[in-house]
Amino acid sequence: MYTSVLSALGLAATGIYACQRDWESLHMRIHKHKNHLHAKRSAVEYPPVLTETESILVNSFDSKSIDSWSYYYTHGDHLGGHNRTMAEWTMEHWNDAGFNTTIEEYWIWYTAPIETSLKLNRPDGSIHEVSLIEDMLEEDPTTSYPNRIPAYHAMSASGTVKSEYVYVGRGQRADFQVLKDAGINLEGKIALSMYGGIYRGTKVKNAQDNGMAGCVLFTDPLDDGEITEANGYLPYPRGPARNPSMIQRGSVRFSSLYSGDPSTVGYASEKDGPRNDVTPYNPSIPSVPISMKDAIPLLQALDGNGVSSQEANRSGWHGAFGNVSYSSGPTPGAILDMHHLMNNTVAPTWDVIGVINGTHPEEGVLVIGNHRDAWVIGGAADPNSGSAIMIELARAFGKLVKGGWRPRRTVILGSWDAEEFGLQGSTEWVESHLPWLITNAIAYLNIDVAVSGPRTALSGAGEIQTIAIDMMKKVLFPSTWGTGPTLYDMWYNTTEGEIPPLGSGSDYAAFYHNGISAIDVGSDGGKTDPVYHYHGHYDSYAWMAKYGDPGFQVHTAMGQWLTLIAYHIADDVIIPWDLPNAAKVLRTHFEDLEETLKDTYAEAPLDLSPIDDSLKVFEDAAERITTIASQALAFNDTVLINVVNSKYRDFSRGFASVGGLPGRPTFKNVISAPGLDNGYGADVFPAVQDSLSAGNETQAIEWVEKSASAIMRAAEILKI
Ligand SMILES: *[C@@H]1O[C@H](CO)[C@@H](O)[C@H](O)[C@H]1NC(C)=O
Ligand SMILES: *[C@@H]1O[C@H](CO)[C@@H](O)[C@H](O)[C@H]1NC(C)=O
Ligand SMILES: *[C@@H]1O[C@H](CO)[C@@H](O)[C@H](O)[C@H]1NC(C)=O
Ligand SMILES: *[C@@H]1O[C@H](CO)[C@@H](O)[C@H](O)[C@H]1NC(C)=O
Ligand SMILES: *[C@@H]1O[C@H](CO)[C@@H](O)[C@H](O)[C@H]1NC(C)=O
Ligand SMILES: *[C@@H]1O[C@H](CO)[C@@H](O)[C@H](O)[C@H]1NC(C)=O
Ligand SMILES: *[C@@H]1O[C@H](CO)[C@@H](O)[C@H](O)[C@H]1NC(C)=O
Ligand SMILES: *[C@@H]1O[C@H](CO)[C@@H](O)[C@H](O)[C@H]1NC(C)=O
Ligand SMILES: *[C@@H]1O[C@H](CO)[C@@H](O)[C@H](O)[C@H]1NC(C)=O
Ligand SMILES: [Zn+2]
Fold this sequence. Notes:
The protein has 22 helices and 17 strands. It is an alpha/beta fold. Helix 7 (200-209) links the parallel strand 6 and strand 7 (214-218). 59% of the residues are buried.
């Protein structure tokens, strides 16, 4: 009765993958949700009025310093576990700023490439050898470093496969279904899939689930918006279009099943600690990423064979190369020869942890984090735009600390290692401090790709959204983009005021799924901005300085914004949460769920009233504590202030369900989680949706109850 059309339709899926922002995901953010919570554009006071402390923090930011921090981070190999010196440098800079900083080491399991080759043998006997590294460019010095990192997929299996291959569109389940319906035999063949639309590891998983023996993922100009060679733009380094030799690296782990080290799921990775079997968490078939340039001959060899793109009739199937037809193949005699050898290893990684102790340590801690490891020598956008900003943020707070100031609440900075393999650094840190974090954490603020273009992005918890938006109004947007006046205007124009829930695309995952309030901030390019070479060699300092953010002004604005948010959460007498907004966001997610189920399972409706009822209780509790908070403040009632702050700190713990979501014990948040067939977008009330798509109505009913009790728990904590 219940089928899996739900995920096939991609309903109620939206969101960003912080390390995974392409134009399409930016676009998805605005259009996928059925129920938009569109805040109206609000008035902005101009010029912004800042308090004295806010001014000190904002004026401390210097784009020239950020430029130099960016330069440092983007001129050495700093793949996960490769660069302890960079961790030490970060520690020294945070220490100099005034944070007490240490390094924490975790030994993690991962795979590293030993040797890879990929060849196309055409029916006429000719051979095309695929390049697994980008062209070196004189204008971009780090592209020719001798220790530059070849393109590969972290967590890929090893294997040697020589077989026919089939183009599978975006590699969603429904794409494979189209091919099977047309009688194409997929068994033992290699899948050739276009990047984009869904998370790359899900494409590999779908190929594997359909009996295929290997997977090749290519970049297509389809996701480059208007900035393509076909539209007359020159490719990087001569212009803003994509360099055709660029290759998108990335992890292919099954990200919707776990975060962190796959050999220690649910507990911290220690050098000689216990390890579990990793096979359920990673693909068993080899996969390799290739460039646009190398995709063309592979696609051309399939032209006219198998299912045509018109017959496939799937969105995102037909790409933007003018000279290929995007036929599925296979073509008799067109063979891919793939040889891929990976080394499984357990090696140390280094998180840098900086602390300013608060004057009211009992009120808890605010954690602000960014990962440091990059796929390439550069990493100027991903993640070191964020890392450069974190140094400047530390120095801004340091100005106050050196004058004897301490925030009310403790502030912790995290510079995580090995995010790119699968959020290892942040997840292992959370796992090793979990009981303490459960008691003390107020919130986690994540900044990953702080800048890959000028368009401001915000996702995450309803209670934090209002302070985050208010602080946008206090930050001037750089006039070099001709779009001022404030960050708020840029954000509103980009998003129409919509804020998606968190999935699992960056280091907030371990916090959020243990019931800690979290947001993710950053900025992307849109379809008319220079193309960002996501996870490729040209995500470099040279690209950033010339195309991404000349003058590092957007970096400055993003850093000022994050610093102001952090300052208010750490130091306001009452934690600046907007609980009625949190209730409104939950209600919107609930309406999304209702509508999705109505569309998909109209014949056997599920009774969702327990969630509806729990939301009413939450809404009342949210209104009431907001009233009490303002009275406590008005009367300076310190006892009541402490009570409100402790409830604000703790209530979101209620959303975490003991034992986790069905089939994924470390994803505990009942409100949202990465979609099982999407991998980077977030599904709302995921356990209910997943149970229905798996055809288990009993389990769906159970999860309606569990989701409702989670909301009740959160509401109970808020009650005074
Ligand atoms: C670590 O990174 C720094 C800064 O980018 C660089 O100078 C250094 O060579 C790197 N170390 C290694 C071992 O690659
Ligand atoms: C293609 O699919 C759409 C729905 O996705 C459908 O409306 C349309 O009729 C299909 N076209 C063909 C030619 O099958
Ligand atoms: C195919 O088109 C691309 C641009 O879309 C161009 O760069 C390439 O040279 C063309 N290849 C062939 C073999 O025609
Ligand atoms: C594989 O990894 C181990 C452990 O990290 C290392 O000692 C060994 O040199 C690696 N082998 C190759 C061929 O890279
Ligand atoms: C750093 O630690 C020292 C010694 O424990 C302490 O006195 C100092 O206040 C700490 N600094 C900050 C910013 O928390
Ligand atoms: C600072 O805070 C940390 C974390 O709460 C605590 O472990 C440490 O003892 C504190 N240090 C000082 C000097 O207060
Ligand atoms: C936002 O849109 C408004 C209305 O279209 C326009 O006046 C303003 O310049 C835009 N601002 C930004 C920052 O894009
Ligand atoms: C509120 O009360 C506390 C503790 O009595 C005091 O330190 C503080 O100055 C008061 N704040 C205001 C704004 O009156
Ligand atoms: C449905 O889920 C429950 C767990 O909630 C499980 O015990 C049961 O076996 C599942 N039924 C089917 C048909 O998979
Ligand atoms: Zn990243």
